[in-house]
Structure formats: structure tokens, C-alpha cells
Amino acid sequence: MEIKITLQKLDNIPLFAVLSPEEQSLVLQSAVLQRYSKHQVVYKPGQAADKVYVLLKGLVKVTVHSEKKDIIKYVLRPENIFGESFLTGDKERRDFAYVMDDCVEVLEIDGQLLLNVMRRNFAFAQSLLHFLGERLRYTEGQLENVVLKDSKSRIVEFLHQMGLEHGKRIGFETLVKHNMTHQDIADLTGTSRQMVTAVLNQLKRSNVLYFNRKKILFRDLSSLPIAV
Prior knowledge:
By secondary structure, the protein is an alpha+beta fold. Helix content is 42%, strand content 25%. It folds into 2 domains: 3-147, Sandwich (Jelly Rolls), CATH 2.60.120.10; 149-226, Jelly Rolls, CATH 2.60.120.10. The protein has helices spanning 3-11, 14-17, 21-29, 111-120, 122-148, 151-166, 182-189, 193-205, and strands spanning 32-36, 41-43, 51-57, 60-65, 70-76, 80-82, 96-99, 104-110, 168-170, 173-177, 209-211, 215-218. It has a 4-stranded antiparallel sheet with strand order 1-8-3-6. Strands 2-7-4-5 form a 4-stranded antiparallel sheet. Helix 4 (111-120) crosses helix 5 (122-148), helix 6 packs across helix 7 (182-189) and helix 7 crosses helix 8. The longest helix has 27 residues, at 122-148.
């Protein structure tokens, strides 16, 4: 592993930027840089939950299996951590982490070492607690949407949030590059693939957005919540 390159990447992640150079080096002493190809599994239920993962490049989705289909808990982009259940007391994995891109880079960090650093660095412990709180609020919001909103509204709200968080402004339009299938969006919104396709086609016919397999171009992102 190229320590200098990884240290620079770690310092660019807000969660780890509060660590001193010595603490960052300590974290990386037990870290392993892994590279994955599309559809590979990072971890699965039953495996030891003794590591925490930092996504450096690409996309990863974390899912749970039900009898009928996968349920996506969240999709991760670079500079996010996942597999953090060790920090909350889990001994074994209860979900899956799948790679969604080619050439994905993930940094595996020893969980016990992170706990030791948390004890030494209060600012880092606060950052991790804030991160865990944000993830919990996101999960609660997803649950509320499933209970309180209809399928079309959930899909449109998801698209709107995607544009706000990951879009790039091009004049009055907003471009989002992604690798999610219609089934992925359905799993994230608690709907069906057919419903996602129908909503996207309706928005495309209304010239609210244009889409293909790799991108969504929003004509006017601000109009999206009232488009359906």
C-alpha cells in the first residue's frame, strides 16, 4: 500500500481530517487498501464485524435480503465510511455490501484501533457520533417516506435529492452521472422497477428530465417535486 498517497486521501475526508498526522499514521498501520470489480461482495451476513471501511473510489451499496428481494439501505459515494456496526457493538455482519462500479477502492481499517483512537481524540469521537446520527436520521426518513408517501412521490423525492446532492449545474440544467439501475432506485424507495420506469418515462415525456443508463439531466431541478 502506498502510504503517502493514502494519507493524503484520508486527510481529505472530513471525518478523518480532525486526526493528527501521527494518529492518521496509526490508523493506516493496520489498514489494507482493497480494489474491487463490479458486483463483488465486500462483506456479507455472518462474517466478523471487526473492520470499518472507507470508500475512496467508486460506488458501494449496502443491502439486506428479504424473501422476495433485496432492500437497499443506502448507496455510498467516495469519502464515506460503511461497515461501522462494530462501533455500535455488533460482532457479526447482518447486511451485505456490494460494489456497483469497476475499479472501486476501499480502505479496510481495524475496528478496535478506531475505538482506541476515539478514546484518545474527543473531536474524532464527536465526528463519528455525528456521522452515525446522520445515518440514523437518513434511515428514519426512508421509513417515514414508505409509511406516509405514495410510490410516485417517493421516487420523485429521491430523484430530487439525488440532483441536489450529486448534480452538476450546466446552465439552468443539472446533470447527475450514476450507475444505478431502475431496480436499484426501486429498492431504495420501496417501490417496483415498473413504477420507477413509468415515473421516469412520464417525466421524460413532460420534458422535466432526460435519462439513459448512465446519467439523468434535470431540465429544472426546482420544478421536480411538483412534476408528478
